[in-house]
Structure formats: structure tokens, C-alpha cells
Design goal:
The chain has 676 residues and is α+β, with helices and mostly antiparallel strands. The protein is built from 24 helices and 24 strands. The longest helix is centred in the N-terminal third of the chain and has 24 residues. 36% of the residues are buried.
């Protein structure tokens, strides 16, 4: 057992560490330690202070909340301190919490204490002040006694009422809640950051913190933030609701967003069940949470129970298993995806994160590896929140890092040894082999057979998997060599099914140049780009002979797409497959090149809806595109014509509402006959 002097030394060390980590977490928005490791240090501090109460100091982290305000913002004194919550981590600790409350209250009622359970948001606590229904001030938690004035930034958040709903407002009201970034918004933000070549945010909380503490509110306004109310701190001019659950409903009536995942019940058994239910739902929620807040629901009981130095006695945070953990980065391998993209994957010493043992984590692309400066042998922090797929947040500094070799993008595909291409300006590197590469084969064939490509009816994912696994098909060209005898060797393939599939394959041989181009699955060449190339060059030989400058002369084609096409057509494996497809009878009618082809619908947007009888909607769309039209899936004021077949629904109604011209199928057919 530690002596008093030993405990004093250890306490001082813990306090220094915890202050450093609190500053990094709350003020710098750059945590340097996983939450689980921080919690362990804090629990050790509490245990030592309980054993040596004479060593508790006024400036101990156990007596304070958060960190000091940033000097860039004016300071706001909290009339009602913004306290933190004590934590429990297991059912036994929850039962101890409930027992202490019952003993303090002398609760001998047969039914257990009334509790309300809410998500513990992983965001930033803020307080909002309203006078006569108007928002007048907003502040961060800060150190619990005073925080930072962030009123201008808070006003940019759409879910924060600038004026309360209804009319019967209290004279003054202080509402507390959490500012966070929903997962969908976080992913969209990081996608924009990546596209702009800027630093990615580690997690939604860091992204929200960075947004909320911008000195320019215009930047905050561009970030997808949300506010969830969870408490009432002060009230004048209206009676307090009798329970916390009533308070939440009351706040909802004023226009505040309240979490849907709030439950009420009695006793610790109910609380444990609510915790498990919330834990099971965690990954499906629109926002990150790191536990569940448990509160005594009755306000009079709350007042009887009171507070300790830093937390209310009547509430506790029941934490979930940690979503962050540190572990050793053993290696970085490159995995080839279905579209040929090379993705670096971190091979990790197995570690438990959020109840799941993690041994691999995606690193997205080589730029992300270099941004994080990751090298095998580093210690890294793993994050698993919302996404089922774990991610590497950052590395922890150590003396040996600089001596370890940097990770480089391989020159050859690790699966098939074909050349790796990375067009200038592109983030993603790809294997150039296309369907020759086993890692890409199945997906390439699925795409080739899909409805908007070669449209081979009946050749779905199940049959493709079976054919490739049985080595009946190793490229798209092999589809056109299949026989009835081969198909009948597949499990659950009957003669009628085989006959129908072979008929669909034969029918698909006659296609268009645009569909064929799209079916090849060239990176960055979607339907619209394939249509543009078909109109520009008119024939396969003309496209094949085009150089990069000629490709870029195609409308809406830039250097990235041009380089992608050039790289694809230079790969011998791809050329061999194309030649085999043509030899197998895949054909299309050449058309005049764009400069010779009439384009009466150039610049127009058309929409097809309902069922057409004389031709399919895809066929009608191809005819319109050949005349220069853009065929869209949605109706807007910019739509020129909506062609409505039988059973046309919402798109027809939208067109009528906007006054867009509507044609029936007969009018379309007449028009096509006249212009062709």
C-alpha cells in the first residue's frame, strides 16, 4: 500500500497528466489520449483521493470541470455552474449508485426509484440564455464556472431556436444541451475536405468542436451542426415542471430538438435494460454517443439528494465500452477493391474497441497514410464510432518513429502484378488490369451485365459468383461463349433457366457504343461521359485512335477522365478483352461524329416517366440522348419536356405543378420520326 508521501507524488503526477489531457480535449480540440485511457487515470485519481482525503486540493481535476476558456472569446460567468457527471462502467456500479440514493432518501417504497435515461451525446455542452422568448447569449461549459461566449456561432445552427415557439414564454430561461455533428454531415464534410486536399477531421466531436470555436461565424455556418436540449438550468416567470421527463417535453414544445431515445422507468433493472437497448442501437443512431445518462426523474428527489463538488448526486453517466483504444501498427498492406482501387489497410495487434476485437483498419488512400505519417511499428489510436469499420485516428509519438521507413504506393498491383495508375490530381490509385485482375473480376462482370450497361436479363450476382467460382467465366468475353451444358453444371440451374439466360446473352450482343463504353467499367466514365464519347467520335476505331487532346475536346471531359481512358486502353489485358467481345459478336451501329450529327435537343433536359409501350424507357432515352438531350431522373423548372407513359406518378404531378410541357408516348414517337 502506498504511503502518504507516495500517494502525494502519484496524485501530483496524475493531476498534471489529467490537466494536460483536459486542455487538449476541451480547449485545443486535439485529444492526445483515448477516452478509455483518460478514464483509467481519472478513476485512479478518485481512488487515491478517497483513500487520502487530506491530499485533495482545490485545483484537482476532481474538483473542476473541463478547462479554462479560450482568450479569443469573451468570458461568460455561469450563474448556475455547469457540472460534470460521475461515471459508472458496469452493472454492479449502477446497482451501487441506486443503493446509495435509496439509502440517502430512506426509500422503502416497493417500486424502485423513478429514472429517466437519455443518450450521452459525444459533443460539446453549451448553455443558451433566453429572455422573453429570444436567444440573447450562448456559452461553452469552459471550466464549469465560466465559459466562452459563442453566441454568434450558435446562431448559425438551424436547430437552435432564435425565438421560442408558441407564445407563453417564461421571462427568462437557461437551456442546456449538446452541440454535435451528425454522422451523415461529418462524412459529407470530410468528403469535401478530401476533395479540396485539406486535412480530414478525426471524428464528429473534433469536427463539431472546431466548427463551434471558429472566430468567423461564417465558417461555422458552413458546418453541419445540430443542437439537442437535455436540461433546464434556470427559470423565471413560469413554474418548474415536476419531473425531468416533463421538462424535456416542455422544451420540445418551445421548438428544441429532444433526442427520441429517452425512456422512463423504475429501478436499476429498468436502467440496465435501457442501457443495453441503447448500446444495441448505438451504431444505427444519426449521431455518436458514448454512454447513457441516468437521472432521477422527480425534481423534488433531485433537490433532496443535492450535489457533490463537481457533480449531482442524482445523475450518473453509464458509459459504453470505449470506442477508442491504442495498439501497435504491425504492417500496412494494400488491398485491391472491386473497382481496382488500392486501399491501404492497417494490420494491427488485436485490441478491443467498443466491444469488438479489431485487427484491421482502413486507411483510405496513400495520402491519408502520409498525412498521419504512419509507419509499421508505430503505436496508433483506433476509433470505432457509428461506422462498423474501425479507423486510425492518429499515432502516438515515440522516439523510434523517425527511424522507421515511410510507406510508399506500390508500382504493381499486389494481386495480379499489373501496373498501378494514379492520374495527376487523383486521390485514388488503381490497378490498371480491369477484369483481368481476380480482385476486380466479379464486380466487373456484374457491372457489365447490369441493366444500364449490356442489360443481360437473368445474369444476376448469384449466377456470376457461381460461374466465376466454377471457372466458367474469367472475363466478360467468356459470357458469350457459355453453353447450355456448362450452365447445367451449376447448382439449381434448370434447362429452362439455362435456355432463357442464353437467349438474354444473345439478345445483348446488339447494343450501342455508349452502352458498350459504360459496360467496360473504365474508372471515371459513367453513363453521361460514355454518351458524350459516343457522340463525339461516333465509332470505336475513332475513339481508340484518339489521343489525350482529342479526348479532352469532348464536352465535359477533363484531364482526369482523359487520362483514365488512355490508361485503360493502353493496358494489353483490357485491349484483349475488348477484341474478344467484338469477336464474340458484340456489335453496335456506328453513328456520325458529333460535328456531323444533328443535335436539335442540345441544351435541353427531358424526363421519362411511367411505362412506354412501343419501346423501353432506356431505348427512348438513348434516342433522345443521340439528339443532344440530357435525360434526367427528376423534374425541375429547367426541365423542357416530360414524357409520361402509362401509370405516370409523382413526376407527372410535379411537371403539371411547375407548368412543364408534358407529352404522351404518341407525341414522342411522332417527334422521333420527324427528326430522324
Amino acid at each position: 500500500m502506498l504511503s502518504a508521501s507516495g500517494a502525494a507524488q502519484r496524485l501530483e503526477s496524475l493531476r498534471v497528466q489529467l490537466r494536460q489531457h483536459a486542455h487538449a480535449y476541451y480547449t485545443a480540440d486535439a485529444p492526445i489520449l483515448p477516452d478509455a485511457d483518460y478514464d483509467a487515470l481519472y478513476q485512479e485519481l478518485l481512488a487515491l483521493e478517497a483513500a487520502f482525503p487530506e491530499l485533495v486540493t482545490e485545483d484537482s481535476p476532481s474538483q473542476r470541470v473541463g478547462a479554462t476558456p479560450d482568450s479569443a472569446f469573451s468570458s461568460v460567468r455561469h450563474e448556475v455552474p455547469m457540472l460534470s457527471l460521475d461515471n459508472v462502467f458496469a452493472e454492479t456500479e449502477l446497482q451501487d449508485f441506486d443503493r446509495r440514493l435509496r439509502e440517502r432518501l430512506g426509500w422503502e417504497v416497493a417500486v424502485g426509484l423513478p429514472y429517466v435515461c437519455e443518450p450521452k451525446f459525444d459533443g460539446l455542452a453549451v448553455t443558451l440564455h433566453y429572455r422573453h422568448g429570444k436567444l440573447v447569449q450562448a456559452a461553452t461549459r469552459g471550466d464549469g464556472s465560466s465559459g466562452e461566449d459563442i453566441t454568434a456561432n450558435i446562431r448559425t445552427i438551424a436547430s437552435v431556436p432564435l425565438r421560442l415557439a408558441g407564445e407563453s414564454w417564461p421571462e427568462q430561461m437557461e437551456v442546456r444541451g449538446e452541440v454535435l455533428m451528425p454522422r451523415a454531415g461529418f462524412m459529407a464534410l470530410n468528403a469535401r475536405q478530401e476533395a479540396a486536399g485539406e486535412k480530414l477531421f478525426a471524428n464528429p466531436r473534433n469536427a463539431a468542436a472546431g466548427a463551434l470555436r471558429q472566430l468567423d461565424p461564417r465558417i461555422t455556418a458552413q458546418r453541419p451542426l445540430a443542437f439537442y436540449a437535455y436540461a433546464l438550468a434556470a427559470l423565471q416567470g413560469a413554474p418548474w415542471p415536476g419531473t425531468h421527463s416533463q421538462t424535456l417535453r416542455w422544451l420540445g414544445q418551445f421548438g428544441f430538438v429532444i433526442a427520441d431515445e429517452v425512456s422512463q422507468g423504475h429501478g436499476p433493472t429498468f436502467v440496465q435494460q435501457a442501457w443495453q437497448k441503447l448500446l444495441d442501437a448505438r451504431e444505427h443512431l444519426p449521431f455518436d454517443i458514448d454512454g447513457m445518462v441516468v437521472k432521477v426523474d422527480d425534481r423534488r428527489l433531485q433537490q433532496d439528494l443535492g450535489f457533490v463538488a463537481r457533480a449531482p448526486r442524482w445523475a450518473v453517466a453509464y458509459k459504453f465500452p470505449a470506442q477508442e483504444a491504442s495498439t501497435l501498427l504491425e504492417a500496412i498492406d494494400f488491398q485491391v477493391g472491386r473497382t481496382g482501387a488500392l486501399t491501404p489497410v492497417a494490420r494491427l495487434r488485436p485490441v478491443n474497441v467498443a466491444g469488438v476485437v479489431v485487427s484491421n483498419a482502413t486507411l483510405h488512400n496513400i495520402d491519408e497514410v502520409h498525412r498521419l505519417d504512419l509507419r509499421p511499428g508505430d503505436t496508433v489510436v483506433i476509433y470505432r464510432a457509428g461506422d462498423v469499420i474501425p479507423k486510425v485516428m492518429r499515432r502516438l509519438d515515440d522516439a523510434g518513429h523517425d527511424a522507421r521507413p515511410q510507406v510508399q504506393l506500390p508500382d504493381c498491383c499486389p494481386v495480379c502484378a499489373s501496373a498501378v495508375m494514379r492520374p495527376e490530381g487523383e486521390v485514388i490509385a488503381r490497378c490498371s488490369a480491369g477484369q483481368f485482375c481476380p480482385a476486380q473480376r466479379k464486380e466487373a462482370i456484374r457491372h457489365f451485365a447490369s441493366r444500364r450497361a449490356m442489360d443481360i436479363e437473368g445474369l444476376g450476382e448469384k449466377w456470376i459468383d457461381l460461374m466465376v467460382d466454377a471457372r466458367l467465366v474469367s472475363s466478360t468475353a467468356d459470357i458469350y461463349r457459355l453453353t447450355s451444358e456448362q450452365l447445367l453444371t451449376l447448382p439449381r440451374m434448370a434447362e429452362k433457366s439455362a435456355s432463357n439466360l442464353l437467349a438474354s446473352i444473345a439478345h445483348s450482343r446488339a447494343t450501342t457504343l455508349a452502352r458498350f463504353l459504360f459496360a467496360l467499367g473504365i474508372a471515371n466514365v459513367g453513363e453521361a461521359t460514355a454518351e458524350a464519347f459516343a457522340r463525339q467520335f461516333g465509332s470505336w476505331p475513332a475513339l481508340q485512335a484518339a489521343d489525350e487532346a482529342a479526348l479532352m475536346a469532348t464536352p465535359d471531359v477533363g484531364p482526369v477522365v482523359a487520362q483514365s481512358v488512355m490508361s485503360y486502353l493502353r493496358e494489353p489485358h483490357n485491349v484483349a478483352v475488348i477484341e474478344a467481345l467484338i469477336a464474340a459478336g458484340v456489335t453496335w451501329a456506328d453513328q456520325a461524329a458529333a460535328q456531323d450529327l444533328p443535335q436539335p435537343l442540345a441544351g435541353q433536359t427531358w424526363v421519362l416517366t411511367g411505362t412506354l409501350l412501343a419501346m423501353s424507357r432506356d431505348e427512348a432515352g438513348d434516342r433522345l440522348k443521340a439528339l443532344g438531350a440530357k435525360v434526367s431522373g427528376s423534374v425541375s423548372k429547367k426541365t423542357h419536356v416530360v414524357v409520361a407513359g402509362e401509370s405516370a406518378g409523382s413526376k407527372l404531378a410535379k411537371a403539371q405543378e411547375l407548368g412543364v410541357t408534358v407529352w404522351d408516348e404518341a407525341q414522342l414517337l411522332t417527334f422521333l420520326q420527324e427528326v430522324t
